[in-house]
Write a sequence for this structure.
């Protein structure tokens, strides 16, 4: 059991070491998350417009549902 624990701890340490370092700390990470969310929202709105222009959701096609609007727009997709 202790050998399994040591192995798991080493794997965890390796995964932590492989994480990309963020310049600026937590504040910079939160800012980047907000920027990515805003970008995702813009993409979701554009996809919503395209779906509406096409006459609604296309049966059997799912765009992944990255935002609530996109999930609502793609209600007809097969999961």
């Amino acid at each position: 059991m202790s050998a399994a624990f040591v192995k798991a701890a080493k794997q965890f340490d390796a995964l932590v070491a492989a994480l990309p370092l963020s310049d600026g700390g937590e504040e910079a990470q939160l800012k980047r998350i907000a920027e990515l969310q805003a970008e995702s929202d813009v993409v979701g709105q554009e996809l919503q417009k395209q779906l509406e222009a096409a006459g609604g959701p296309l049966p059997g096609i799912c765009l992944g549902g990255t935002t609530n609007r996109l999930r609502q727009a793609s209600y007809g997709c097969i999961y």
Observations:
- The two ends are 40 Å apart (CA to CA).
- Residues 25-53 form the longest helix (29 residues).
